[in-house]
Amino acid sequence: GCDQVDSAMLRHAIRTGRKVALVYRDKDGTETERVVWPVVLGYRDSGRILAAWCELRQGFRYFRTDRMVSAVEQEGAYPERPARLRKQWRKAMDEERQQYATS
To answer: pLDDT (tens digit, 9 = 90+) per residue, 17-43?
Structure first.
């Protein structure tokens, strides 16, 4: 799929610690609105993904950029410092990997 969102805006939000309001389409085509705290923009086999803290799910989630219907940077910053959020995300990733390794 083709990305409809501006990756420069996402990178800016990551750098400055801004919340982003997403309209996201899941694999079944259902659209949901959610507010996320972007951590990292990266690549997976499926294409570009945004790792972010999801306020709705209260956890770190991955969002495929090609499933983003829209993404709007919010005025307000989230309460964490970006560096601290990244650290928490890395810790969560490590714990997830350990779970897979031991199961």
So the answer is: 999 999 999 899 999 999 999 999 998
